[in-house]
C-alpha cells in the first residue's frame, strides 16, 4: 500500500492537524516507511503461536476481596452540601 500527498492531507484533516505542503511531502515518506514495515509483519508465520500478554511468565498478584467503608466516612462526606448519617443526600430525580 502506498500513501500519496492527498491521503496525508485527508488523514491530517480527519485528525484535525494543520499540515502544510512541505510537511505533507515529508509525512508521505514517513507513512510509507511505516506501512512498509507493517507489510513485512504480514510475512511472518505465526501458525501455532499462542497470544501473549507478557514475554515473561507471570502470575497475577491477588489480594483478598473485602468490602470496607474506608475507615473514614466523615472525611468522604466532609465537602458535601447535605449529609445524613455519613451518606450523601441528593434531590429526588425519579417520580
Structure description:
The structure is a single chain. With 95 residues, the chain is mainly α. The protein has three helices and two strands, in the order H-H-H-E-E. Helix 1 (5-14) packs across helix 2 (21-41). The longest helix is centred in the N-terminal third of the chain and has 21 residues, at 21-41. The chain is flat. The termini are far apart.
Tally of helical runs: 3
Let me know the largest β-sheet: 2 strands, antiparallel
Beta content: under 5%
Determine the mean pLDDT: 89
Assign a percent range to the helix content. 25-40%
3D shape? flat
Distance between the termini: 59 Å
Structural class: mainly alpha
Features:
4% strand; flat; 95 residues; mainly alpha
Short précis:
Helix content is 37%, strand content 4%. The protein has helices spanning 5-14, 21-41, 73-76; strands at residues 83-84, 87-88.
Q: What's the helix and strand layout?
A:
Blueprint: H1 5-14, H2 21-41, H3 73-76, E1 83-84, E2 87-88
Antiparallel strand pairs: 1-2
Helix pairs in contact: 1-2
